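User: I'm putting together a teaching handout on how multi-component assemblies are represented. Below are the sequence lines for each component of a complex, exactly as they appear in our records. Could you produce the 3D structure of the whole assembly as structure tokens, so the students can see both representations side by side? Please keep the chain order the same as the input.
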Amino acid sequence: MAEYQALAREGLGAAQRISLMEAEFWHERWQKGETGFHQPEYNTHMQAFIEFLALRRAARILVPLCGKSLDMLWLSEQGYRITGIEISEIAVSDFFTENQLEHRITQTGNALLYAADGIEIYCGDFFEIQKADLAEIDAVYDRAALIALPPTMRPGYVRHLTGLLASGTQTLLVSLDYPQHEMKGPPFSVTSREVVALYGGSHSVEQLHAEDCLAREPRFREKGLTRLEENVFLLHKKPGLAADQ
Ligand SMILES: C[S@@+](CC[C@H](N)C(=O)[O-])C[C@H]1O[C@@H](n2cnc3c(N)ncnc32)[C@H](O)[C@@H]1O
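Assistant: Of course. Below is the structure of the complete assembly, with chains in the same order as your input.
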């Protein structure tokens, strides 16, 4: 792969090369408007299961790899404060302009911070954002973030995300499970077993819902999938982990 070899010649380590290629992949998707993952409606699982987090009003919800998800708008309308993290400036800028949200932009650490009333999005690499950069996070909403990453990046994603959170923080995770050999991804298939393997050390893991959703997903049927399941998990960070500060 030519890009990979060019990056290797620049003397970058394997993890940095993978991370740079991933970033390039997503920048290109946004530039070309290839954003089939973006939902024009609010996510129904989020709407159905957010109450399981039992959050107080004005709790802060972290939305990693947020794209320009309208779910942030809905959550904000429910009275929650939102902190998104997204690498594409196109996505972040579109989110605020398309939803007519007055905002200001400031430089902060390794990211640009876009902030409107109740919603802020760090435009930068998720892996570069540190706990000290963020206000206290009360909960996480992950839809199409974990499953956007290839298998080699998922343990690092979970480790980094867990390090941003205090003990007791809950996460609502919406993921997909399908025969991986039938489609290349992203989105990738992440089985319930893998969710437990990734999160089980640091979180309690409870599966709230499983749904066969192939019938209502023509774009995945066209790609040849014979099975597609959407799973919803409630994760609860265990106390006393080293990552807690
Ligand atoms: C599949 S999309 C999902 C977006 C959003 N969660 C949604 O539900 O519409 C994955 C998003 O992650 C972003 N992304 C990928 N790698 C990232 C990284 N290292 N840091 C921040 N954002 C990243 C991409 O630009 C893309 O918008």
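A couple of points students might notice: The pocket of S-adenosylmethionine is lined by residues 22, 26, 37-38, 65-67, 69, 85-88, 91, 125-127, 143-145, 148, 186 (CB under 6 Å). The first strand starts at residue 60 and ends at 64.
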